[in-house]
Write a structure and sequence with these properties.
Layout lengths: L2 H17 L11 E7 L18 H8 L2 E3 L2 E2 L5 H10 L27 H7 L3 E7 L26 E5 L11 E2 L2 E2 L9 E3 L29 E2 L2 E2 L3 E3 L11 H15 L5 E6 L20 H23 L6 E7 L42 E4 L8 E3 L3 E2 L3 H8 L16 H4 L9 E6 L1 E6 L2 E5 L2 E4 L5 E4 L4 E5 L15 H16 L2
Parallel strand pairs: 1-12, 1-13, 2-15, 3-16, 4-5, 4-12
Antiparallel strand pairs: 2-14, 5-6, 6-7, 8-11, 9-10, 13-14, 17-18, 18-19, 19-22, 20-21
Helix pairs in contact: 5-6
């Protein structure tokens, strides 16, 4: 070919690249860092209006990218949200995806496609660090041997886990299938069926507790805090809550260091601000709102460490960073940590009603901030409807990966929405919280059911037939049920929800 022909081809390629900015060649694949916080409400980050304390590192993501105002986790509790986000399948379709005990088996099956396995198949290094809560092993879990299957069997190259939640036993870290720093002479036993061992519990030894329980957290005492479930042994391996954020953040940073020369996917799943809220002394009494606010400052520090590491590795420009949460906010969730008493004027869910466990908007409308300097213009605000259920399929689109038949069945390719280019977003979205609610544009339908109200302690609202209909464009706080005024809209949404529920 002569130079003129080659120049023409190059120009055509450049034009195609400019008009298809989110479809990437292998060499241009971005790193992906998904920071998934726990129990963080829409209003808990200062870029969404929190005036009680500041979250400058989290705000940096918004300032340098897109702040989404109508983004949702799939469910109002943790396990179903995490399952649905990774699999692109609503959790209600799969039995056993409710909030899991700490000794549950792995609910993502080896051989099935999920976010990590798909990205790994395209050449990504894949890692998960932090809270897992999707089960481990198959059958009775032996915590004293290699635990299989584990995240490495479903697409992750590396894992360092809090197996379930901070308030559930076993209170140990698991790295690459093994309990960290386990003493074979002090084997671990775990039970959720009945008490084991003769050690003190939170129910009978409150004088040994440095944080009192309010409800449901009165069993094995670890680090002066009583938990859900029974555990013996593993004394040397038990975590110290105050060090947890430092420990998992250091593992996340190491993963980025070790994979800096290839595309990587890091699922950094923080414990903060889930109970028990026991932040490091660096953050204690710094928020003015008690341990819950202090834990938010600690979470913001974790985010800052991740962003700084990307800067130091010179990876920030071509790294997609997402910050979001697994469900809405909660105050008293089992421990006496003054979350209610020291709340002051802070609104954890902003203007939205209720929070964790609820079918109201506060249950799933969570902060979602997206940054990718190479592809996203800074300082955007998107009001488009977006669901984390779409992340897996959107990532697949971004890296030009072929999605196997049957994978991500409820997910959509919403890459343009994620990157701030589509102002409408997905046409409808299911919201799971015991029952199922439905969003269609600004309409919100909650079928006849019992609905959790508040941020803890809770009350329950009974929705009489046919349920509740809200126009969020005019009533974002869901105060005026207009079901009786729009029977045709109720019927339309009932039929759509039925068809979604019954779809295989």
């Amino acid at each position: 070919m002569n130079r003129r022909v080659l120049l023409g081809i190059a120009c055509l390629f450049c034009c195609w690249s400019l008009t298809n900015p989110t479809k990437l060649s292998a060499a241009d694949k971005p790193n992906i860092v998904l920071i998934y916080a726990d129990d963080v409400g829409f209003g808990d980050v200062s870029c969404n209006g929190s005036a009680s304390f500041q979250t400058p590192n989290i705000d940096r993501i918004a300032r340098e990218g897109v702040r989404m105002t109508d983004a949702h986790c799939p469910a109002a509790t943790c396990t179903p949200s995490r399952y649905a986000m990774l699999t692109g399948q609503y959790a209600f379709r799969q039995k056993g995806t409710g909030v899991l005990p700490g000794n549950a088996n792995l609910i993502l099956k080896p051989g099935s496609t999920n976010m990590a396995s798909l990205l790994k198949s395209t050449g990504y290094a894949t890692g998960v660090v932090g809270k897992w809560h999707l089960g481990l092993g198959d059958g009775k879990v032996d915590w004293n041997r290699e635990i299989k299957p584990n995240p490495n069997d479903i697409g992750f190259d590396y894992h360092f886990l809090i197996p379930a939640t901070g308030d559930r036993v076993p209170c140990v870290y698991v790295e690459q299938g093994r309990v960290v720093d386990l003493d074979p002479a002090d084997p671990i036993e775990v039970s959720y069926q009945g008490r084991i061992g003769n050690q003190a519990s939170g129910a009978d030894s409150k004088d040994q507790l440095k944080m009192k329980w309010s409800h449901g957290h009165d069993q094995t005492i670890v680090n002066g805090i009583s938990r859900i479930g029974w555990m013996t042994g593993g004394t040397r391996s038990r975590w110290i809550d105050e060090d947890m954020a430092d420990v998992i953040t250091s593992k996340a940073l190491r993963f980025m260091d070790e994979n800096a020369k290839r595309p990587f996917f890091l699922y950094f799943s923080t414990h903060d601000i889930h109970v028990p809220r026991v932040p490091h002394s660096r953050f204690v009494n710094k928020s003015g709102t008690g341990p819950r606010g202090d834990a938010m400052l600690q979470l913001d520090w974790c985010v800052g460490e991740v962003l700084s590491k990307l800067d130091k590795l010179r990876l920030s420009d071509n790294t997609l960073v997402i910050f979001s949460s697994d469900n809405g906010p909660v105050l008293d969730d089992g421990y006496v940590d003054e979350a209610n008493e020291k709340l002051g004027k802070h609104d954890p869910n902003g203007i939205y009603r209720a929070g964790k466990y609820s079918m109201y908007e506060g249950g799933t409308r969570v902060p979602m901030l997206v940054r990718w300097p190479a592809r996203i213009s800074a300082g955007q605000v998107s009001n488009a409807l977006f669901g984390q259920i779409d992340l897996a399929r959107s990532f697949a689109s971004m890296v030009n990966a072929t999605v196997p038949d049957g994978a991500f069945p409820d997910g959509r390719d919403e890459l343009d929405t994620l990157l701030g280019k589509d102002v409408q977003g997905r046409p409808h979205l299911v919201h799971e919280a015991g029952g199922l609610a439905l969003r269609v544009a600004s309409w919100k339908f909650i079928p006849s059911s019992k609905v959790r109200e508040g941020l803890g302690p809770w009350t329950t609202n009974a929705m009489d037939a046919p349920g509740a209909l809200f126009d969020l464009a005019n009533d974002p706080n869901e105060q005026k049920n207009i079901a009786s005024e729009h029977p045709e809209k109720i019927l339309e949404m009932q039929m759509l929800l039925k068809s979604i529920r019954e779809r295989n």
